[in-house]
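Let's practice the habit of predicting before peeking. Look at the sequence and jot down your guess about where helices and strands might fall. Then scroll down.
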Amino acid sequence: METHEFPRALALGLGRGILHLRDHDGHPYRELILDACLHNRAYDPQVEGSRAAYMLEVIRESREMAFFTGAVLRSLFDTGHDWDTPQRFELARRLAQSGNTEAREAMYAAFKAAELSASDVAVEFIELDGINGLLFVVGQIGRQLTANASRWEDDFLVEEASRLCGEEPVDAALQDAAKTNADVRAFLDGVKEVRALRTASQRPNAEGLTYDQIRSLIESGKAGGIVVRWAEMASDSDLQAAGHDLVQERDPKRLISYLHMFRKRPFPLEITALLNLVELPDGPIPRHALRALANLQDDSVRHLAFKLIETSSSERGYSIDLLVNNFRDGDHRIVETWCDAETDPDTVNAFSRSLPALFAAHPDADTEKRLLRSLYEREPCAHCRCSIVECLIQLNALTEDMRRECVYDSYADTRSLMKVGATS
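Done guessing? Here is the structure:
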């Protein structure tokens, strides 16, 4: 890898960034690395998670461990409700587990000073100190719940602690602490209240619901994802009725619920209504309409796929999906051209997620290998890159350079794929 390529490798979380630092001075990249330590630069942190493990390897290979460690620990006292804070605390936890006592002390002091309650931060104390760590964060959170009646706390921490330390030891420790510690009692009361509310608001099972019941849930705004499961089991006549209601619906939220029904089942009526929805201003309704159109085989759907590309539509990421059921000879080359020409990260991400369905329905191993190798270099999401790596392994098309750097990828599942390959 050339030196000028390091910033891109670090931004994408590619393992070649770590490999590069083994043979090059890390000092010129000091500010770049520091930024990536203090800020979670993942494309989709909710899916990809923290890059703490990756960044710890980066700073070790930079040979400026003391500088970065000090900066990370100071940053714990300047935190907020964002994706950066969990990464900073995970980095500190990993440092503490490696024997850094200053990291442990800073974690506890910062959590107490900032009055943090975010579960994805608090869980680091359980990872670090087990039940003792749990009791510490539970006490801090309980104190906040007592001081602010509008706050609430779900049972994520209890569930995670049970997974890490065992359900019975965790329950026993919490119940014992609650006898003498009002803050722990407040936490447990809050968790109990949230669990009761969740049980009371639990949606009915989709199986056995009539269409009239589904329609009532949609009208009351309580349908949620149940409509997708219901539609999978629905009769053709019920889907016809739902299609007619969709055509007549004008309320955006209810319209989205109706569109959800046709994510997996084909829309049974004339498709002009769906095509018209695509023409609405950019937003969720056109996107859900495109998902419904992708289920259909129709020349107008194929035409729409090309129109989205030709007009550089913000929704062009759906074009490959629209071709799966409307494929013609020569389309492999067309899709390859679309992917090669695309520069927008969101659209590149959408294309890479669409390719598995395309090649499952219309196999072409040579084109698939070329496309996946190309998208591996540009896919902004490390989770989606992992899927690309998995496909390349199945095609026996993962290059040795890719295999070598995937061992150090920012996404844990990608690294795991390499371990499985080494032992299989």
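How did you do? The chain has 26 helices and no strands.
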